[in-house]
Amino acid sequence: MTFWKSFFNNNNKEQYSYYTPDKHLNKKEILLIKNLYNKGSIVDIYLSISNNINLYELEQLCDSVGWVRRPIKKIKIALENSFLIACIFSYHKSKKTLIGFARATSDKSFNATIWDVVIHPEFQGKGLGKILMNQIIQQLRYYDISTITLFADPQVIKFYNHLGFIMDPDGVKGMFWYPL
Predict the structure, then answer these.
(1) 46 is catalytic
(2) Domain spans, the chain
(3) pTM score of the predicted model
(4) What are the pLDDT digits (tens) for 28-61?
């Protein structure tokens, strides 16, 4: 039970303090970084908590990290059924480019699972993945969701550990069913 108790500890409420969520959040973008130097260009980086996303741009972002392509029709359904969607965009000379993405599903009361966290390789190592995850967590905590889970490939476990995610010390294991 030790593992689950850690999610109900409210001493960390101020840990994620990048912005204060409000009911109009999905109608604006929040400037995260002004004048970031990236590969010979100066770009501005913005965060958007919104379900208004171009599916083909998302597909290109996922392609950039080598993810297996999924049918656009199914991606659209997954996004429509997500509780929260966060995107990071770069702006260069009035051109907006999707460079980061994450989403969460939830029962809207106790539990949420974070899915599909991705940062374009050109922007990795600049702290954007951490910012994206902290914003997702902050939003979920704003809705008083106390159990936040995710699935992680072995090569990114260390990244999530640095954000406070832990392997379940009580030995609770997820189970999966796949069609034959």
Answers:
(1) no
(2) 29-151
(3) 0.81
(4) 789 999 999 888 889 999 999 987 899 999 999 9
What CATH architecture does domain 29-151 belong to?
3-Layer(aba) Sandwich (3.40)
pLDDT of residue 12 exceeding 60: no
Helices 55-64 & 72-80 angle (0-180, nearest 10):
110
Could you report the per-residue pLDDT of 156-167, keeping only the tens digit for each? 999 999 999 998
The full DSSP string for the chain is -HHHHHHT-GGGGGG--S----TTGGG--EEEEEEEEETTEEEEEEEEE-S---HHHHHHHHHHTTPPP--HHHHHHHHHT-SEEEEEEEEETTEEEEEEEEEEEE-SSSEEEEEEEEE-GGGTTSSHHHHHHHHHHHHHHHTT--EEEE---GGGHHHHHHTT----TT----------
Residue that has been written with the tokens 């929260």 in this structure:
84
Catalytic residue among 16, 18, 143, 160: 160
